[in-house]
Amino acid sequence: MDVSHGSSDTFSEIIELNVGGQVYVTRHSTLLSVPNSLLWTMFCQKKPKELTTDSKGRFFLDRDGFLFRYILDYLRDQTLVLPDFFKEKASLLKEAEYFQLQELAKLLRPAVTKENSVSEEVCQSDPEEAALSSELAGTGLRSPTLEAKKAGYITIGYRGSYTIGRDIQQDAKFRRVARITVCGKTSLAKEVFGDTLNESRDPDRPPERYTSRYYLKYNFLEQAFDRLAEVGFHMVACSSTGTCAYASNDPSEDKIWTSYTEYVFCREQ
């Protein structure tokens, strides 16, 4: 029996969700924990056959799959817990409003300023510096302390493949970037790449720890290079490996080359 559907008219207690490509498994009762919310309406007022599903029968929501984990955590016990240096409060507020979670939106709203010019982390760590930042915001000036940028290294890696056919001029798959990875200190990676950094594989890493599990939402490697150059990084090293194989056992068929490349960038104080 499908764990999501139960029967055609009732929901199973275990529900599978596909939220923007991210799969979540939760209890039906969790989705009903906040009356009159969007999820409550979907899974209480409607029948399974009325909801959109993906190719595997999971209920589909076209929303931010990474941020939904915080929505689901809130539904479990109605408390909000975010990792340190969380920089997507404005986006999470938008998700809370979409899912009609008014109390969650209230918890997030004080932390989101009109222009996001002063972060909550600054306000919590140094009230005097936060007050100075607010005063300077109206003049277009910034505190030298806030402008100071951390020194450090970031490594960008990507695994790409391309096919060399019998007629290379007709090859339409010259380079395909499967995923652009980011290695380095968590706080530095978040400072540089912001919302373009996908943390779903290592979401709660402390800011002063290192990770090699982040990747970028970019489709082109050059987008990462441009961003690093904008914030003062320069490349100091590069290495690459490659393999070649036939697409089939027929030597006359196309050859597929696969490569893994790492670029090391540095920013000095």
The end-to-end distance, rounded to whole angstroms, is 59 Å
Number of DSSP strand runs: 9
| H and E string | EEHHEHHHHHHEEHEEHEE
Major sheet description: 6 strands, antiparallel
Short description:
With 269 residues, the chain is α+β, with helices and mostly antiparallel strands.
Descriptive account of the structure:
- The protein is α+β, with helices and mostly antiparallel strands.
- It is 29% helix and 27% strand.
- The strands form two sheets. The chain has a six-stranded antiparallel sheet with strand order 6-7-5-4-9-8, with helices on one face. The protein has a three-stranded mixed sheet with strand order 2-1-3.
- Strand 1 (14-19) and strand 2 form a beta hairpin.
- The longest helix is centred in the middle third of the chain and has 11 residues, at 127-137.
- The model is unreliable at 114-147 (pLDDT under 50).
Please supply descriptive tags for the structure shown above:
269 residues; alpha+beta; six-stranded antiparallel sheet; three-stranded mixed sheet; flat
Set out the fold topology.
Blueprint: E1 14-19, E2 22-27, H1 28-31, H2 38-45, E3 59-61, H3 68-77, H4 89-98, H5 102-108, H6 120-125, H7 127-137, H8 144-147, E4 152-164, E5 176-185, H9 186-193, E6 197-198, E7 210-216, H10 221-230, E8 234-246, E9 255-267
Parallel strand pairs: 1-3
Antiparallel strand pairs: 1-2, 4-5, 4-9, 5-7, 6-7, 8-9
Helix pairs in contact: 4-5
